[in-house]
Amino acid sequence: FIGMAVSAFEGSMFAFVFDWTPALDSDLVPPPHGVIFALFMMSCMCGASASTLLASRTRPTTRLVFAFVASFVSFVIAAVAVRLGPESHLKLSLLAFMVFEFCVGVYFPSIGVLKSDAVPEHVRGTMYNIYRVPLNAIVVALLLGDLSMAIGFVLNAVLMLVALWSIIAVNRVVIPALPLTPLPKHRPQETCD
What we know:
Elements: H1 2-23, H2 33-54, H3 60-84, H4 90-118, H5 124-144, H6 149-173
């Protein structure tokens, strides 16, 4: 189930990398791609910081459920905005994309903890490579499918539902036995004087 969640979320994320630029294209206002990319990176960092702040109070699966639901909503909003006409809905599309990037920031630390808890160290490299096979198939299918942008965002939303279902299954089947582990407290180093 973890592999399905990884493939669905990361496949959607890689497809998004190719779709955000044309989705924000405008004849009226040329988009400042550098500023937009900086906003995306800021949103991602805020998500990672939020994940770190919540780590001692919530399980990784709980944070992932939030991230997948919010990502689903952001892709539905993006699909609707593109369908209605990107010229009049650029701000809505940008906001949806920033929410998704926030979710990307929540995703990586959360899935990292979950994978390290669930995948034994001696097979970790092999398992992570196996996760990449369906991920790459998803990306190739989305990119070579000659789909409209709205349909692409709808398929990304469907992938978020697959990831959500997978994490809920992990939460119900595998994770209840794992304790909630708080982060270690920072201790100042002692100096020898």
